[in-house]
Design goal:
With 134 residues, this protein is mainly α. 74% of the residues lie in helices and 0% in strands. The protein has 5 helices and no strands. α1 runs antiparallel to α2 and α2 crosses α5. It is elongated, with a radius of gyration of 18 Å. The two termini are 18 Å apart.
Length: 134
């Protein structure tokens, strides 16, 4: 399962990192979703769980999203406000990061499921015959 999650996730990492570097405020999930669909498709052909594989691929491919969160975390204490307000700002930023990670994970799980559905529609049920070939 991890093999296909790594394939899909590592496919998306360079594109997501490029988006995070160029404009972190306008990032999209396009390549993360594509990598999750690919991972779900590949694992379903082998009879595995496409939802879990898509989720893992999305978490791997979405790691550069944390880069944008790190930049935001470093900017919050530099704003001239009282200490308690800065602490609240850091807490809200971390909460936003958690929500962002959850959105990436859920989107990847749905994309992986879609990839599994595509594999089934193309005739790959995931069951092997007695000879071991598909």
């Amino acid at each position: 399962m991890w093999k296909y999650a790594l394939i899909g996730g590592l496919l998306a990492v360079p594109f997501t990192a490029l988006e995070a570097w160029r404009s972190p405020e306008n990032m999209t999930l396009g390549m993360v979703l594509f990598g999750s669909v690919l991972a779900g498709y590949l694992i379903k052909r082998r009879g595995g769980n496409s939802t879990a594989t898509g989720l893992r691929a999305a978490l791997i491919g979405g790691l550069p999203f944390l880069w944008a969160l790190g930049d935001l975390l470093w900017s919050v204490p530099n704003i001239p406000n009282p200490l308690w307000f800065q602490a609240v700002g850091v807490g809200i930023t971390l909460g936003f990061g958690g929500v962002m990670l959850a959105v990436v994970a859920v989107s990847g799980a749905f994309a992986g499921r879609f990839g599994g559905w595509l594999a089934e529609r193309r005739g790959h049920s995931g069951a092997t015959n007695a000879g071991g070939s598909m």
